[in-house]
Design brief:
CATH topology: Nuclear Transport Factor 2, Chain: A
Distance between the termini: 18 Å
Structural class: alpha+beta
Protein name: Flavoprotein
CATH class: Alpha Beta
Number of domains: 1
Number of helices: 4
Largest sheet: 7 strands, mixed
């Protein structure tokens, strides 16, 4: 299971880096649930809001000729058919990284067809990049 998940996760990160909204829609579960914390403000959202967020983020990247800098921090199995990926993400514009990044705790589940889907996400947004750089894949 872990090997198939690692292959999926690499594909997921390529979808993210390539700003492919159509492919992102296919890997986010319809019953997706998320919580994001930005400057102490908590926001809960589901599939539709998530896709709208991806659409805005991808548009920003394309319009500003920027790129995503997404890194794996840690991966662990929660249960059979359920994996947690801890990821950090920031944006690079004109070769310069933003001063802040987001830390994503993303739970992926294997569906009945054996395909991995993003089921849940907890996001800490706006973390100083220097605080995340000390994290390493374990």
């Amino acid at each position: 299971m872990e090997n198939t998940f690692i292959a999926f996760l690499d594909r997921y990160l390529d979808i993210w880096r390539n700003c492919s909204l159509a492919e992102m829609k296919r890997v986010v579960a319809r019953d997706f649930q998320a919580r994001e914390v930005t400057d102490g403000l908590v926001s809960d959202f589901g599939f539709e809001e998530s896709i709208t967020g991806w659409e805005k983020g991808f548009k920003f990247i394309k319009e500003n000729e920027a790129q995503w800098d997404v890194s794996k921090v840690s991966i662990l199995q929660l249960r059979e058919g359920e994996m947690l990926a801890i990821l950090s993400a920031t944006i690079i514009i004109n070769g310069i990284s933003l001063d802040t990044a987001n830390l994503f705790f993303q739970t992926f589940k294997e569906d009945t067809l054996g395909e991995w889907k993003l089921a849940r996400s907890y996001i800490e947004a706006g973390i100083p990049s220097e605080n995340i750089k000390s994290l390493a894949l374990k």
